[in-house]
Amino acid sequence: MMAKLALIGGTGVYDPDLLDSVTEETVSTPYGTVDISLGTLRGVEVVFMSRHGRGHTIPPHRINYRGNIWALKELGVTKVLSTAAVGSLNEAMQPGHFVALDQFIDFTKGRPLTFYDGEDGVVVHTDFTEPYCTSMRKVIQEAAAELDVKLHPRGCYLCTEGPRFETPAEINAFRLLGADVVGMTNVPEVVLAREAGLCYAAVATVTNLAAGISPAPITHTEVDEVMGRSFKRLGSLLMAVLGKLDPESSCSCTTPAREQEV
Ligand code: HPA
Questions:
Q1: What is the largest CA-CA distance in the chain?
Q2: Which of 55, 126, 195, 207 could form a disulfide bond with 226, CB atoms 3.0-4.6 angstroms apart?
């Protein structure tokens, strides 16, 4: 099977139109079926997946993260580029800015978060010193520089359970913990990708200042509007990054450091 790239579109990125010769497919996984689009970009096969479903119908805590990552692995994907809409806790990161995530803090509460659930008696602890693929992050930075797109080269993403937005007290606490941006979906997606041996990187788009920093209440409409306004720049950045990635090149993400107990 030909190695492939994948693009997981978050809020505001629903359409595989960026790719050529797109076909729709349904993939069976142990976690249920997953709908994807398959297309090409300059001769390289790219799988497009809409994280919230095509019409944004799946809330963050109900996304089939394990099915999604399993499906990508099954299709021969080796590298996953994803997008995320985020609120900002860092005054340097303003609405419309892009951030190449480099760390996360997990504040989710009730999601299946691993492929290693222990049913087979195997306990696996995967290293997460570098949660996001460092070589993909370099490519994202290069592409942004070439396109003259403003991108923060690193940022710590705090993942909440959602689907509600945060309280100002939570945002204050998260800032003290070192978070730069807040969202609801990167965990467990990034975790499962590493467990599956896939390279994974995320470009976050700041859509709003976080609760209590923003002068107004936060709405999904505002998030959608800023994503809409940023889409042209984001789309060209994503295409440039995908165009620079070699699905065949090897990386330490494919053999993550693990400690196993049987
Ligand atoms: N909080 C959580 N998730 C988000 C936000 C936010 O402020 N903005 C976009 N996604």
A1: 53
A2: 207
